[in-house]
Amino acid sequence: MNEQPSAPYLDALVAHGFRGSGRFHVPGHKGGPGADPALRYALGDRALALDLPQDIEGIDIGPKPTPYERAEHLAAEAYGAERTWFLTNGATQGNHALALALAPLGAKVVAQRNSHASLVDGLVLSGGMPSFVAPAYDHDLGMANGVQPDALREALERTPDARAAFIVSPTYYGMCADVAGCAEVAHAAGVPLVVDQAWGPHFGFHPDLPAGALSEGADAVLTSTHKIVGSLTQSAMLHVAPGGRIDTGRLARAVRIVRSTSQSALLFASLDAARRQLAVHGEALLHETLRAVAAARVKLASVPGIKVVGEELVGTPGVANWDPLRIVLDVRGTGNTGYEVADALRHAYDVQIELATQATMVLLVGLAESAVALERVGGDVEETVKRITKPGSTLAVLAPPASLEQQMAVAPRDAFLGEADLVAVDDAVGRISCESIAGYPPGIPALLPGERITAATIAYLRDIVTAGARLHGASDPTFRTINVLSEG
């Protein structure tokens, strides 16, 4: 019997939340009366009534399987997993749990160098040691693509005692690695493959989209449900494939360690509802959205100075497939950076985009994007570019220094927890970083705890800040000082 049209957690939460039970438990807003009037007006009593605590009979405790357990089971079924966990601290929580489960104190893992910062943060928690593998790099556009199977093979040969391999697919730009090839390499080396598919929770739910990583041989997969398919911000899922390469008992313990004891019922309900919509109506919704996106691409490609990037990159290093829901615009022909075009678009039309870099802007399209909105943004971009284009000017792209591909000097945990000296950035060359610093967007770490700082890395970080990026993780947002491991 197909149970995908049901949403057991959402239904149970609504039934309990709206029945008028006495509330002599947390939270203190009591479903509305105790909330600040402005918040109550903004959210409404219906939302506040559903903000219930854990351990409510008939929702997440009581006769087995509970609605909560059924909801996770249905998500596993939809994604083809043996086990799925709902996450209320995003894919970040999943990376922390995976690091604790697969990279215990002193253990080594091979990890893609441009993995999300939360993976290295997880290794700080676990005491594991990363051995990095560099992704393929598009020097023209300044984009990091996926890890190639041969590069992963070499990294695993350099690290024969690795416990797991971590890769990212798709990238922020929607470019997909050869996951099947990487899975074959990892399994030949005797290790599980973990795929950060945070940006592809919709993969596998329409024939014109890339397949999901689980179906391509990955052993554990993270999907940020909130990014594309309609759950609330901060909600995500962690999936484990059948086959036994991941110890689900150990991973379950790790998930418990890094979650709150007061998880949000609203986030859980949104995950349950998003899974239902994706499983039941996803293909139809995506079909209409893909048609609208295709029309938007044609419109944007006609704008002088703008080049629409996408399918033509498939087959280039590190790009085995692409996500058509990511609209990547090369704006260099306008004589402006992506930061400048995005800023002008925001001020003129109140349009917020997902990502800007020196060379590009990325427009993120959701599961059921409005064709009208896509048509409108095409016109907004056209008018903005007409106004700010600098004729005859094309910008060069800053490439990250080769030092971003170097191995760690000490374990991230040792650097993060060790005694630190706060020094001027120019005096930090040759010292070991205690900080994780990434330029936002796109959030890829340029410097990690345990890495030796080079002049090239400092110059790169300064350049991207000058170009308009923000530094995430830096103790000094002006990047004049930095914490380094004490030599005393």
UniProtKB/TrEMBL annotation:
Enzyme class: lyase
Known EC number: 4.1.1.18, 4.1.1.19
Annotated ranges, domain Orn/Lys/Arg decarboxylase C-terminal: 407-470
Occurrences of domain Orn/Lys/Arg decarboxylases family 1 pyridoxal-P attachment site (ranges): 8-316
A Pfam entry, by short name: OKR_DC_1_C
InterPro entries, sorted: Orn/Lys/Arg_deCO2ase_major_dom, Orn_Lys_Arg_decarboxylase-I, Prn/Lys/Arg_de-COase_C, Prn/Lys/Arg_de-COase_C_sf, PyrdxlP-dep_Trfase, PyrdxlP-dep_Trfase_major
Cofactor: pyridoxal 5'-phosphate
An example molecular function term from Gene Ontology annotations: arginine decarboxylase activity
Keywords for this protein: Decarboxylase, Lyase, Pyridoxal phosphate
Family indicated by similarity: Belongs to the Orn/Lys/Arg decarboxylase class-I family.
Protein name: Arginine decarboxylase / Lysine decarboxylase
Protein source organism: uncultured Solirubrobacteraceae bacterium
